[in-house]
Design a protein that fits this description.
Layout lengths: L2 H14 L7 H25 L8 H14 L19 H4 L1 H24 L2 H22 L5
Helix pairs in contact: 2-3, 2-6, 3-5, 5-6
Length: about 150
């Protein structure tokens, strides 16, 4: 099999969720993606609050947040509700509500990226706050609290 065909088949299996139904590694992958979101959110918070001012990094964090949040729904496919996870069963029990929450996060991070690209500090701060609210809203309903 040609390498490109193998990559295509692997990607297809991944996108359809066929490869994740009983794979603990997928849970680790999902957790790593969520940690990446948290990392970019934490770093962007430090910049927006004026604690640090690394040149150009806010745009990088905003782009990463928008891209990562665009993929939230596929991180929780049917059959991945097992293992060491803080994901609540409501993700799979209430898929429409979960989709609404992930759409809010996707839209908020896209708006944050737009604000950062626009360069207006007040708009950036407001959009960043909206991202935080979208994250909080999703976590309240769909993530178990830390011990």
């Amino acid at each position: 099999m040609k390498p490109t065909a193998l990559v295509t088949l692997t990607a297809l299996a991944f996108l359809t969720g066929a490869a994740v139904a009983d794979d603990e590694d997928y849970i680790k992958y999902r957790q790593a993606m969520m940690k990446a979101i948290a990392g970019h959110m934490g770093a962007s918070t430090q910049i927006v609050r004026g604690k640090v001012a690394p040149e150009g990094d806010l745009l990088m964090h905003a782009r990463a947040l928008a891209e990562l949040n665009a993929h939230l729904p596929r991180l929780f496919p049917a059959g991945s509700d097992f293992g060491e996870t803080k994901a609540k069963p409501a993700i799979w029990d209430e898929p429409a509500k979960f989709e609404q929450a992930t759409t809010a996060a996707r839209d908020a991070t896209a708006a944050f990226l737009g604000a950062v690209e626009g360069g207006d500090a007040a708009a950036i701060a407001a959009a960043h706050k909206d991202v935080g609210q979208a994250c909080k809203g999703c976590h309240e309903d769909f993530r178990q609290k830390d011990d």
